Each structure stands twice: as structure tokens, then as C-alpha cells.
Amino acid sequence: MLPRLKGLVPWEKFRSDLEVIYDHERKSNAGRRPFDVVMMFKILILQSLYNLSDDEMEYQIMDRLSFMRFLDMALDSRVPDAKTIWLFRSKLEEHKLIRKLFDKFNAFLAESGFVAKKGQIVDATIVRVPTQRNTRDENKAIKEGNPPVENWSEAKKRQKDTDARWVQKNGKNYYGYKNHVEADVKYKIIRDYKVTDASVYDSNVFEELLDESNTSRDVYADSGIVQRRARRT
What we know:
This protein is an alpha+beta fold. The chain folds into two domains: about 1-110, no CATH class; about 120-130 and about 165-230, no CATH class. It has helices at about 1-10, 15-20, 35-50, 55-65, 65-70, 80-95, 100-110, 135-145, 155-160, 205-210, 225-230; strands at about 120-130, 165-170, 170-185, 190-195, 220. Strands 1, 2, 3, 4 and 5 form a five-stranded mixed β-sheet that branches. Helix 4 (about 55-65) crosses helix 6. It starts with a helix and ends with a helix.
């Protein structure tokens, strides 16, 4: 699948959108040259296709020749580490490019014949972030939607994540977000997504993610979600 995907998608058409995130860095030649933006974007595509964390992605690039070929990398090429991948994604979010790039990529897939087929897979993955060290009063204010940012220094503001929330799964507590995705069964390509804090129930965004254009009405998901949908249809 990767060779076909590599050849069908006109990757260079994403470059003008992607290069915006490095504009400010071009004013100086100091430091190591940043990784090619198109290659970094292709790394994010691989992550979504194979559901890999940043650390797993770093390892798999070095371990899989198929990944290296997809990324146009040689055996001795410098490989982005997990922090670099995370930082690139953060820059895309900062410039509000994620949804724009996602929709553009899916449009190219549709034009190339990758139409959603054979049903849908709806799932959610917990994305953990560093636990915040807040006082009891700060946690209360954050939970009520009024983080006390006026009392924080600029350095403290940069370290705080006031949107993440706690969730319990299989008896363990996690702090962070949930990435809710909908993929088609045939190609396993993500067709839609929504990011929420970790406390949001999967069923709350289930209906929103369903793709009515899929060639099959079969839905593969957590049994609780499917039953809830059955009661509403």
C-alpha cells in the first residue's frame, strides 16, 4: 500500500502550506538545518496509518525499509527523533494547519480512487501529557473553566496544560486527551477525527464521526457505542 500511496499523492502540493511553520527560522543560519517539511508531514501520515506513538515512530523509521522508502530516506539519513516529531505536530497545531492539511490529503485520496469502502472503524486513543503540579485551588479553577493565568508567570504559563483532563481506564488513571478517529475498513485510512480532553466519553462523538458516504453501513467499534447507535437508528 505504501508504494501506491507514495506515487498517487502529489506531496509537493503540501509544501507551501507546511513551510509557513519555519518562516521565522529562515532569518538566521544558526543551528542545524530543520528537516524537510514534506518528509515530516509524511511521517505524521505514517503515524496515523499505523497508530504509532512518537517514540515508536522514531524506532520504526530506523527499523523498516518500507518506511524509509516512503520518506525518501537513505540508510545513513538523519532520522527525526520523537521530540522533533512532537514539535513539528505542535507547530502545525499552532498555525491551525492540521484540519486544512487533513482535508486536503483526503481530497487527493478520493481523486486517486481511495474511496471509503467496506464499512467503518471508530475508535479512540488516549494521548497522555505530563501531569500538572497544581494546587487544590488551581485545579478547582481549571475544572470550572477559569484557570488562574493572571497569577502565573510567562514561564509557568508555557508549562501548564489547562485543557487536559483525567480519565480512568481498566483501573488506571490517565491525564491528557483523546483522539477519536473514523477509518474505512478496506484501506484503514483515517477519514475523520476529533480531539477532546480525556474525560469525554467515546460515545459522545461517535455519531459526529460517522461517514455516510462509505460503501457499507457496517460499523466496527466498542460494543457500547454500537449498541447506543442501534437504539437511535
